[in-house]
Amino acid sequence: MAKIGFQKSSSAVWPWLGLALLLLIADQFTKVLILGYYQHGDATYVTSFFNIVRVHNSGAAFSFLASASGWQRWFFTAVGVGAALFIVHMLRSHPGQKLFSFAMACILGGAIGNVIDRLLHGYVIDFVDMHYAGWHFPAFNIADSAITVGAVCLILDELLRVRRSR
Predict the structure, then answer these.
(1) How confident is the model over 87-142, as pLDDT tens digits?
(2) What CA–CA distance (Å, rounded) separates 58 from 66?
(3) Is 64 helix (H, G, I), strand (E, B) or coil?
(4) Does residue 111 lie in a domain region?
(5) Mean pLDDT of the chain
(6) Active-site annotation, residues
(7) pLDDT above 90 covers what percent of the chain?
(8) How many distinct structural domains can be found in the chain?
(9) Rounded to whole angstroms, what are the CA distances from 147 to 49, 59, 78, 106, 132?
(10) Which of 121, 96, 91, 103 is nearest to 158 (CA)?
(11) Interior/surface letters 74-99, b for 16+ CB within 10 angstroms, e for the rest
(12) What is the Cα–Cα distance from 66 to 47, expressed in whole angstroms?
């Protein structure tokens, strides 16, 4: 009986891994386009609040540790790989929890997308520049967006879980 349960939970993880793969492909495809059409620092005005830019981020979110001496590349790569392994384990452990699994798949796809950048280039390629009245949000990419959506869904899932347990 245990083997049947394992097969069911193991097969239930594939749609979530597929979602992570789709996000990864979208992330890497857009980054290839940016690398092909933009030089570092180039920007295209799109709307009054949105530009496409080519920025290299050798740090983490909001360029945290970007000015460090280079060790951060390997540190953030290791964190990303560790997170990916943990997320796959969590997906296999909780296959029936749809919102939780959606959140984990989004974070997984984004984490792997940024790990690939660090391994190939030594930095993450960011290109979405949101701004308003002289204020600029730090540039980001599809992987960052997927991680953010996943984190919000993870928080929502936890709030709903706590609410259900009352």
Answers:
(1) 999 999 987 899 999 999 999 999 999 999 999 998 999 999 999 988 888 899 99
(2) 5
(3) coil
(4) yes
(5) 88
(6) 126, 144
(7) 67
(8) 1
(9) 22, 16, 17, 6, 23
(10) 103
(11) eebbeebeebbeebbebbeebbeeee
(12) 28
Amino acid at position 71, single letter: W
- Asked if residue 34 belongs to a domain, the reply is yes
The verdict on residue 66 lying in a domain is yes
In a domain, 11, yes or no: no
| Inter-axis angle of helices 98-121 and 71-93, nearest 10 | 150
Place of tokens 């949000």: 137
Q: Residue 70 region, left (φ>0) first, then alpha (ψ -120 to 50), else beta?
A: left
Please give the residue range of the domain that contains residue 52.
Answer: 16-165
Please give the single-letter amino acid code of residue 91. Answer: L
166: Cα within 13 Å, side-chain hemisphere: 5
